[in-house]
Write a structure and sequence with these properties.
Chain lengths: 115, 291
């Protein structure tokens, strides 16, 4: 067995294990934000989250057509089918205002305030 | 009649531009800055999970004598796997139309040119409290056709850039800056090895006239060396020109730019402009489709 093979046999399981361990930690420490989409608008229009914590945004689409939750500053996009819920995972954020919108509907927008 | 229809179509394309100039831009959606500065690359890395296919052509035109036209087109796939990393890769196609030149052989050809990959890491992210955003990028490229002469070669290039931009006025005015270091090594058909590098930077301004339309200008200063360690200076050039960015739909956009060499020098001679390592004009046209 070469040194390279031995190294890979140690490193790959270690990396997989570390990744698996991090997932529940990330999920436990994330702040959860809930947004409802109804009649082509986000409710509430402004939501809040704490600084330096990952954020899980749960988007519940009550309308009869799909929406695309999108944000340039959050750097996420997620299509949420009609009458269903989508989950958007966001990194730990710095203080500020992060705007989001429905890419399928020019008039639907909201903001996440991190403070 | 046809002219009137063309203007009407153009007016529709940049819908409500006059009204948009007077609008409150704070109500506009934020824009991805990567492609709004022409040859200068903005810091944007896209949205996590987003994919894009684009056709990106750069043409170089005019040398000291004869006629010279060369293009290189990137057929590019781009993906953003995380909120900090973007990866691109693709194939290169090149064309060369060269004739009556004293320094290059005449040729008229179109060929598969090679391949490339690019890795971008967002090092400083813009927030509502910090207008600056910085991305670090590396782009290894393999070419089988020499960019300048069109001759068959094996060329390995490792472009390293810092892409920074500042949102000067919210949703309205952006400034972009690039720092470039591009070492490369080429094995010619006669097995000669050539090592060289380009070093330089750019500054660009782009103003958003309408939610889907930005125009601007950029300036590039580039130095060329016959050494990757920047020890054998052969010449430099200053290029400047206008830029255009149009978002046709939320998922389809184009960017265009044109640069003219406004100043240049070649080491060891007093000729105006540097037309040995650079060209009189260069132009860029890119169409992209996100999905």
């Amino acid at each position: 067995m070469t040194a390279a093979t031995t190294t890979m046999r140690i490193l790959i399981p270690a990396a997989v294990g570390a990744f698996a361990l991090l997932q529940p930690v990330w999920a436990e420490s994330a702040a959860e934000v809930r947004v409802t989409y109804s009649n082509g608008q986000f409710q509430p229009g402004v939501v809040n989250a704490p600084v330096d914590k990952p954020v899980v945004i749960r988007v519940k689409n009550l309308d009869a057509k799909a929406l695309e939750f999108e944000s340039t500053s959050l750097r996420v996009e997620k299509v949420v089918a009609a009458k269903s819920e989508g989950v958007v995972n966001v990194r730990a954020l710095k203080p500020g205002r992060y705007e989001f919108y429905d890419d399928f509907n020019a008039s639907a927008h909201g903001a996440l305030i991190v403070e | 009649m046809q002219t009137a229809l063309a203007f009407y179509a153009l007016g529709n394309l940049f819908y409500g531009t006059d009204a948009a100039v007077a609008q409150d831009a704070s109500s506009w959606r934020e824009i991805e800055t990567k492609y709004i500065f022409g040859f200068t690359t903005g810091s944007g890395i896209g949205l996590e999970g987003e994919k894009e296919f684009s056709v990106d052509s750069v043409g170089r035109f005019g040398k000291r004598d004869g006629h010279y036209a060369a293009t290189e087109t990137k057929y590019e796939f781009e993906v953003t796997p995380s909120q900090f990393v973007q990866i691109e890769f693709g194939a290169l196609g090149s064309t060369h139309n060269i004739g009556a030149m004293t320094t290059l052989d005449g040729r008229n050809q179109a060929a598969f040119g090679g391949g490339f990959a690019e890795f971008r890491y967002l090092a400083v992210e813009r927030t509502s409290n910090n207008p600056l955003s910085v991305t670090l990028a590396v782009e290894p490229t393999v070419r089988f056709i020499d960019e300048t002469s069109g001759a068959g070669v094996h060329n390995f290039e490792f472009e390293t850039t810092v892409n920074a931009d500042i949102e000067v006025l919210k949703n309205r005015l952006y400034a972009g800056f690039n720092l470039l270091y591009e070492p490369e090594v080429t094995r010619t058909a006669t097995d000669a090895i050539q090592r060289e590098a380009q070093f330089g930077g750019s500054a660009a301004l782009s103003v958003r006239l309408a939610p889907n339309l930005l125009i601007g200008g950029e300036v590039w200063y580039l130095r060329h060396y016959n050494s990757p360690t920047l020890s054998d200076f052969t010449g430099d050039a200053l290029m400047a020109g206008p830029t255009l960015y149009v978002q046709f739909t939320p998922k389809v956009f184009m960017t265009a730019a044109w640069n003219a060499q406004v100043w240049g020098r070649e080491a060891g001679n007093s000729l105006t402009l540097n037309l040995s390592e650079f060209q009189r004009h260069r132009a860029r046209l890119k169409f992209a489709f996100e999905f």
